[in-house]
Amino acid sequence: MSNSEVSTDRVYTQEEIQNILNLAIADHACQGEFSRSQLVEIASDLGISDAVLQKAEQTWMRTKDDLAKREEFNQYRRAELKQKLVRFGIVNAGFAAINLMGLSFFLWPWYLVLVGGGVWLGLKTWNVFSLDGEAYERAFQRWYRKNQVRKVVSHWLGRWLSV
Asked: Are residues 156 and 91 in the same domain?
């Protein structure tokens, strides 16, 4: 059997077809972006109806928006963690300075703050970099609702002040 006979008799799963087409599109001579008309043409060549394509496109756009919101949330959490790290460092530097000045009665509470704060900060860091689970989802939903309320209030306040 030659290679051409093997390739014509071969049967592919849907996942294999998706992978092969992804590679083919990535290697396409166009090496750029595709227009929506090209997307429709490719879909029609594959026998995909306009309704199915439109539904898939809407799902893709929602997923893309959700990923962008989650990335914004993750950046917000990292910035918040950096602020907490700086505060922790300033407080402990202050205790260290007081201790170095010879006020030794602050020695024991300083270590207590250092250890207790370090454990607290370690847990906060773990939460910031843990990107899955129920706690992450609750925190994301809470942040998203707060941002939505902030946008609505800002919009209405802006309209009210511009009148």
From this structure: no
Instruction: Answer yes or no: do 95 and 146 share one domain.
Output: no
Q: Do 126 and 140 fall within a single domain?
A: no
d(CA 40, CA 48) in angstroms, rounded, equals 9
Of 65, 35, 66, 39, the closest CA to residue 50 belongs to 39
Instruction: Give the whole-angstrom CA distance, residue 99 versus residue 93.
Output: 10
- pLDDT value for 1: 46
Locate tokens 């509470």: which residue? 109
Strands (E), 6-80: none
Boundaries of domain holding 152: 132-163
Asked whether residue 122 falls in the same domain as residue 151, the answer is: no
CB 73 within 8 A of CB 142: no
State the pLDDT confidence band at 109, using cuts at 50, 70 and 90: low
**What is the rounded CA–CA span in Å between residue 57 and residue 52?**
9
CA-based Rg of the chain, rounded to a whole angstrom? 28
